[in-house]
Amino acid sequence: MKFEAVTIKDIAKALGLSTSTVSRALRDSYEISPETKKQVLEYAQKINYRPNPIALSLKEKRSHSIGIVVSEIANNFFSQVINGIESIAYDRGYNVVITQSHESYHRELSNVQYLASRSIDGLLISVSAETQDLQHLQGLHDKGLPIVFFDRVVENIETHKVTIDNARGAFDATHYLLQQGYQQVAALMNAEYLSITRERLAGYKNAMNKNGLSFDPDLVQYCRHGGLDYEEVEQALDQLFSQQKRPDAIFGGSDTLTTNCLRYLKAHNIRMPEDIGFIGFSNIDLSELLSPSLSVVRQPAFEIGKLATGLLLELIESKRPVKTFNTQVLSPSLLIGESSQRIKKAKKL
């Protein structure tokens, strides 16, 4: 049986009123008596009437919906960002349409085209690990679609952007490992051309320099699919551990990379911190309950979502074209657990 939504015509027929009277009553028009308004509103509530969003969007030239593109909803960081987005959007009367790119440029392109075809009022996006061609976003931006980038931002499109101090997060993690006495700190990174990779790699290099060590490119491995492909992570770690100078610590450059690095270490019976120290970017809520407890760089994901949504709604609701944009940079936190605590081996007598 095909579902059919209740319409104004259905209400009018049931109450013996004209459709124009019902429409005005629902809009709280002064032309309709209080008694008729009460009758219409009570019946509409009783049958769970909801205005047709397509009809409203045609009338108001607004859909009161915003699109979201993230790499993976299951990712702890992005799920917390989405919670932040929804906390603002729904309070302001906007619905959200969430899509996943799964780190695929073509999936992202398809998602953006779909969202645009649904007449969204604005777009929040963290680009995929494969995205280098920005024409699909630049074209919509040029046509006036409000867009705000968060986390993985792009330089060539002038709009609001929300991210964290990635360089600081990577510096703090790497510096802590080096201060613990680790010497061969490897870095497992996302695709090289992503903004977060460039910034986190800069922080990693800065920590090396701060501790009197030269940068060794052999200690850095990049995963083009951002950790979603476990085999890619496995190959990167195999490469690191096959070197003559094996790493004695690892810095995981993203949430998914961190998760799959832990999976690899467990599969290969590599113990933390006995065999290797570890700190990763991660927003997992149970890091302290793992054994050993996990040292992480935590991002203010919920706040990122709230801030990005607020900026997007400012663009959507502005009466005049916005020509001044800013990049909001929030601070990450380094939370120390057991995985990065260097265990000093007793000297043999």
UniProtKB/TrEMBL annotation:
Designated name of the protein: Transcriptional regulator, LacI family
GO molecular function, one term: transcription cis-regulatory region binding
Pfam families, per the entry: LacI (PF00356), Peripla_BP_1 (PF00532)
CDD domains for this protein: HTH_LacI (cd01392), PBP1_LacI_sugar_binding-like (cd06267)
PROSITE patterns linked: HTH_LACI_2 (PS50932)
PANTHER family in the record: HTH-TYPE TRANSCRIPTIONAL REGULATOR GALS, LACI-RELATED TRANSCRIPTIONAL REPRESSOR
Superkingdom, taxonomy of origin: Bacteria
Keywords of this entry: DNA-binding, Transcription, Transcription regulation
Species in which this protein is naturally found: Hydrobacter penzbergensis
UniProt keyword annotation of Lipoprotein present: no
Family annotation (SMART domains): HTH_LACI (SM00354)
Residues annotated as domain HTH lacI-type: 6-60
